[in-house]
Design a protein that fits this description.
By secondary structure, this protein is of the alpha/beta class. Helices cover 44% and strands 19% of the residues. The chain has helices at residues 2-23, 43-59, 74-81, 95-104, 139-148, 163-175, 187-195, 209-216, 263-278, 280-288, 298-319; strands at residues 32-36, 63-67, 89-94, 115-130, 154-157, 180-183, 201-205, 220-224, 250-258, 292-293.
Length: 324
């Protein structure tokens, strides 16, 4: 009789303990915010919106893109790092926010320790654009002119420290040219200025506005930064083809969250990303915009970011642009 009562009591205790866990709603049970540290209209923003829409459909729960512009993506990254580690605030992390900027300046967060690296999304070339009235048909033309007219040639970008800007800083470092950087508040603003003829050159991620401007003939693609030409803009030569041997830069994207995300939540987001990025229609949509799709495990993503941190740290130091 006593043994029977003990078993009954133990069963009641275990049942009570199990209730809170059973009552936990499945993730996600409310809208998820995806922070993008750049203005709408650029390649980073475009990639984020594709992923957010696909995750919303997969989960049946809204994933909202929240553009938090400032500090070359630092404001958005800081907000993410300091958010609750529950999976309801994630961000589109990129080479600018999580490899280049940490090499340039002291940040209010540790870009490796204060984030959970969930999965890669993909990468895209940056592209140097010229107004059709300008004589630059390839990067070799730009280098020749800049060497003959040091400091007289300018270009626009989405802002200091982003991958497009650093692409040209690397070009300047490798060729010894002096070219003036004109930072704008977002990729769309820089694109508008070069299309209007206010500046001779502009650089940005290939997807979105730059690709459309090239295809429409409103701008000339002077060069793409990757080692191979883009399948979406095969008429645009690479920087290496323009005479800069060994030049190879890509803007990569991934999804990060604050550090210490619960393992089940981290696994759920990673699985969702892997699934949507493997879907043929999603791959076609992103490829059509010049984004080379590539998912990963969290461990693979973190290893890649560490390698990129070392790479861009050297570039920043050699170019002498530490700090801002």
């Amino acid at each position: 009789m006593i043994q029977s009562r003990i078993l009954v009591c133990l069963s009641a205790v275990l049942s009570c303990c199990a209730l809170p866990a059973a009552a936990q709603p499945a993730y996600p049970s409310k809208p998820v915010r995806m922070i993008v540290g750049y203005a709408p209209g650029g390649g980073t923003d475009l990639a984020a919106r594709y992923v957010a829409n696909a995750l919303s459909e997969l989960w049946g729960s809204t994933v909202l893109v929240d553009n938090r512009v400032g500090g070359g993506g630092v404001s958005g990254a800081d907000m993410t790092a300091k958010s609750a580690p529950d999976g309801y605030t994630i961000m589109l992390c990129a080479v600018g926010t999580h490899a280049i900027t940490p090499a340039r300046m002291k940040l209010p967060y540790d870009h490796l320790k204060d984030f959970s690296y969930i999965s890669m999304i993909g990468a895209t070339p940056n592209v140097l654009l010229g107004h059709p009235s300008q004589p630059f048909k390839n990067v070799g033309d730009v280098v020749t002119y800049a060497k003959a007219n040091p400091g007289k040639l300018s270009y626009g970008s989405s802002g200091v420290g982003a991958s497009p800007h650093m692409s040209i800083e690397l070009l300047a470092s490798m060729t010894g040219i002096k070219i003036v950087h004109v930072p704008y508040k977002g990729a769309a603003a820089a694109l508008s200025e070069v299309m209007g003829g206010q500046i001779p050159l502009s650089t940005g991620n290939l997807p979105g506005g730059p690709l459309a401007a090239i295809k429409s003939g409103r701008l000339r693609g002077v060069g793409v930064t990757t080692a191979k030409r883009s399948a979406r803009a095969p008429e645009v030569p690479t920087f290496a083809e323009g005479g800069v041997a060994g030049y190879d830069v890509a803007s990569w994207y991934g999804i990060c969250g604050p550090a210490n995300l619960p393992k089940p939540v981290l696994a759920k987001i990673n699985a969702g990303l892997v699934k949507i990025l493997s879907a043929p229609d999603m791959r076609e949509r992103m490829t059509d915009q010049g984004i080379d799709v590539a998912s990963s495990t969290p461990e693979e993503f973190l290893t890649y970011v560490k390698a990129e941190t070392v790479r861009w740290g050297k570039v920043v130091k050699d170019a002498g642009i530490v700090g801002d």
